Amino acid sequence: MLNIIKSGFFTTVQDYGRFGYRDKGVPVAGAMDSFTVSKLNTLLENDENSAVLEITMTGPTLEFEQDTYIVLGGAEMSVTLNEKPINNYKVYKVKSGDVLTYGKLLKGFRGYLGIKDGFNTAVVLGSRSFFRPITEQDSIKKLSSLPYTKCKLFNPKISELKVASVLDKSQLEVYKGPEYELLTDKQLSQIFYKEFSVANENNRMAYQLKEAIEGNAISMLTSATLPGTIQLTPAGKLIILMKDGQTTGGYPRILQLSDMAMSILAQKRSGDLVSFKLK
Amino acid sequence: MTTFNISVRQFGVHAILIEWPNRVEESILDEILQFIQFLKKNHLDDKEWEFVPAYNSLTLICKDTVLDFDYLKPKIKDWYAKKGKIDPATRYLWRLPVCYDLKFGLDLEEISEKLSMSVEKITELHSLNIYTVYGIGFLPGFMYLGGVPEALEVPRKATPRPRVLMGSVGLAGKQTGIYPQDSPGGWNIIGKCPVPMFDVKKENPCFVKVGDKIQFYPISMAEYQLHKIESEVGIYNIEKIVLDA
Prior knowledge:
A: mainly beta, B: alpha+beta, Gyrase A, domain 2, Cyclophilin, 5-stranded mixed β-sheet, Cyclophilin-like_dom_sf (chain B)
């Protein structure tokens, strides 16, 4: 068990996501920065769907009950293992009783903690990813614990990885969305020749951008949306659906983020700048 | 037979959007449901693909693969042209109990004034009608129902409620439906249904599917309490009638 001494601001268990239930209105969920998580699971030689902890803004304090191996990644946060600083993208052995403490957020927004063979929390509708009310919990709670399998010995093929970080990037690659053709020249120039800042309204469901473009009164029938779909509201606001985003929507879907752009955006917080580039 | 022109569009690298004419129409929904059956049976493995129908569109999603759109677009058009008549999955009419008591129907009196219609008449009209499920989305198990009679069309509330309770039955514009979980919401609340629309403990967490039909029938407060308990302990049988039989 991993004991939660402090939960942090918003810490969740996430795997690759919940597939096969979108026709029932169930969002995919899964790690927001899937690029980073795939690196962690690769280093740990885990199945690619192994569950990790997604740590938002302020991290937790955690105590390990059994021996295992861990890797951190994503946002740069000052983290100590038994009060000794540790780095991202490096495999560390942890022993029973060891304490992992998250300190200051230095860069990015979402840190990840990968563990050998993944966390064994309940699988609901094919996934361990937290999403209420599909899972009972929306985030980990103080004094609770998370199950994992003990690992005494593991010789990683690669013990440290140099990762081209997504943290320094701010350009988001996009594809044309289904309603792209309805955009006016003015709207197009506003989208592609301007920077946007992330609004306070940002979470696992959606990121709203602060600056508006010219509005649009296009009315359409409700249709499917995907993680990474950018919707244009009548008031000209851009809303980017993220992993917990709803599966259908009624606003024009003007653009679609690439998978890598999703990971880049997942590391942004209120006020950070982004721009769009058509792929 | 097939009289609709479809458009096939790329939707990111993992999905394809197929659209029928921009209308809310049973015959269009039928075509979409038939096409889903046809694709599942002959061309696209439903372990790899997700099929999300809504009103006049069908979105095909393949989670891992980066799709070869140039290859798939003509294929899909060709498959649709060759589909012929195919039976959609068995469809049901679900009869769902609703308690229209004023204790649950928080906005009944307000919309009675707006529509110049008695509360009794509103609930009678609402429960007489048979609605078609045109989509499921917004929340897990939230149905987009079509077929609200014109006389019941009433705008959504000027200020949404921060919390609408699970089971609440709402009415807004041309739409009616049940909130499957507690959620913020701007629809007028006219009653409450004791049957949960989404249950993660079930292999099929949502008994309704797109293309099914819904009829509401009025129940008393006492019946509401009884059905609520029956649902909780898992002995409530939802009344269903096979359509297309």
